[in-house]
Amino acid sequence: MIDERKVKQAFTLVKNDMINLQRELLELNIRQQRIMEMLSKLNNKTIRTSIKPKVKIKTVTKRAKKVFVASKTGKKFHDKHCPFAKNIKPKSKVIFKTKNTALNHGLKPCTCVK
Question: Residue 67 class from Cβ within 10 Å (0-12 exposed, 13-18 middle, 19+ buried)?
Answer without folding.
Answer: middle
